Amino acid sequence: MGNGKVWLVGAGPGDVGLLTIKGMKVIEEADVVVYDRLVGMGILSLIPDKARCIDVGKTSGNHMMSQEGINKLLLEEAKNGNRVVRLKGGDPFLFGRGGEEIELLVKEGIPYEIVPGITSAISVPAYNGIPVTHRDFTSSVHIITGHKKKDEEYDIDFSALVKTKGTLVFLMGLSELGSICKGLSDAGMDKNMPVAVLERGTTAKQRKVISDLSTIEETVRLNNISTPAIIVVGKVCSLSKGFSWYEKLPLAGCRIAVTRPKELISGLSEKLRIKGAEVIELPAIRIEPIKENLALKQSISNLASYQWIVFTSPSGVNIFFEEMKSMKADIRSLAGLKIAVIGEGTLKMIEGRGLYADLVPSRYDAENLGKELGAICFEGDRMLIPRADIGNILLVEEIKKRKNVVIDDIPTYRTVYEGSRIINEKEEFQNRNIDYALFTSASTVRGFVSVTEGLDYGLVNAVCIGAQTKKEADGHGMKTQMAEKATLDSLVRLVEELHEKQRQGNEK
Ligand code: SAH
């Protein structure tokens, strides 16, 4: 009690990269996150597990919680001593009811902070190549709510707006587009004034239509533009065609689910985001180190008795070295051992610890590792393999086929399947909201399947890192593709190729 506080945080317009650094920090420290519909899926997927999440989603007409209810909720949670993050789309103080939400907090003396966000009013035009001001065209920009109470007249002074000659940005105006255009045109605006309607800006589903004051309503109808969308009126809209950039990124328009375990996910997500993809992080598995692992401890105490140590996953490396650390085992106790790793990701992990591999197989899988290791090791060698409890048996079999060796195959972690608490994976795939699911191991496929039971897997475009992974995905009836090499870069390249083909197909 007593330490509760509320942060009103703007999540930006959708693109994860447009959440502020301060916003992210506050979310990382939150006990409770209260969010609504406009907050992008990508951002929701970043909320740490320890935070309780409350969806007060407010799509117009489908109110889940009244404004009063939300105000009370924030108060209650803070009074109970929680660090409460109220996460809102765009900026909390621009048509975000931020003012209403702090009134009660002020009255009750609850401390709070406001973390402004990037508003859709400026960023969505920017992602569509529209600068809301430009010295050649306009010297002001006006942001207006297009919301109108049913059966009431607009409380907007259209003739004052027209007189400013400024760019006009209407939020929440799509359903009243006709009245807005009529209001402006009755007030004397040129019928040829360019107008843009921008749907779901800064996300993979971003779309725009541009025409003029007299035709935009028809254009919007023909293209089935839907909410959320903003309306931009002004000469700057004519710049959009020449200035557009987002669509040109190699993975623009692509929404990708990444299923790696949480501690490994960000590297892959970043590679995809840089290329313009919208990434939803849906870790399908969690790595759980085996506690009080006596077999592992014993091996670490006797490292000098081995000739080889073999790593078959990044998690395997991390857990092994964490155990060494907890035992205060010196890195030099590995001095006499040769090191074999299964592939590039695992190699990077050991290199990060100042070690280099003596063997990386030419093809990155357990079977090949076994074959190549079996070929170069000596009779009677002792090998330590600290790895998952359900490690691929082919590794050991292939080595033993070739040499008579002693292998300590020690389980160091198990894989736990889990789904997102916030995002309904099954629904998103069923509704075709996600273009590709990336799988970096057979266990991520199994994890994904365990949390999407009943999904029609024919709807899942599974992009798989290697043969084992593909086999697992094929077994569930997914549409599968396999990377040329078992590396993250090769996986990303494959997604690019698939997306490019898809785009060309759409253009035809
Ligand atoms: N506080 C928010 C606005 C909330 S009002 C902000 O600063 O952006 C909700 C309206 O914002 C929607 O009706 C729509 O007009 C606009 N909007 C929000 N996100 C959008 C997006 N990604 N693309 C297009 N319009 C968006």
Automatic annotation (TrEMBL):
Tetrapyrrole methylase domain: residues covered: 5-216
Record EC number: 2.1.1.107
Q: Which domain of life is it from?
A: Bacteria
Q: Which Pfam families match?
A: HEM4, TP_methylase
Q: Does the keyword Isomerase apply?
A: no
Q: Tell me which UniProt keywords the record has, alphabetically.
A: Methyltransferase, Porphyrin biosynthesis, S-adenosyl-L-methionine, Transferase
Spell out the InterPro entries in the cross-references.
4pyrrol_Mease, 4pyrrol_Methylase_sf, 4pyrrol_syn_uPrphyn_synt_sf, 4pyrrol_synth_uPrphyn_synth, 4pyrrole_Mease_sub1, 4pyrrole_Mease_sub2, CobA/CysG_C, Siro_Cobalamin_biosynth
Residue ranges annotated for the Tetrapyrrole biosynthesis uroporphyrinogen III synthase domain, each copy included: 268-492
- Enzyme group, top EC level? transferase
Q: Which GO-annotated molecular functions does the record name? A: uroporphyrin-III C-methyltransferase activity; uroporphyrinogen-III synthase activity
Q: Which GO terms describe its biological process?
A: methylation; siroheme biosynthetic process
Q: Which family is annotated?
A: Belongs to the precorrin methyltransferase family.
Put simply, this protein is called: uroporphyrinogen-III C-methyltransferase
Which source organism does the UniProt entry give? Answer: Parasporobacterium paucivorans DSM 15970
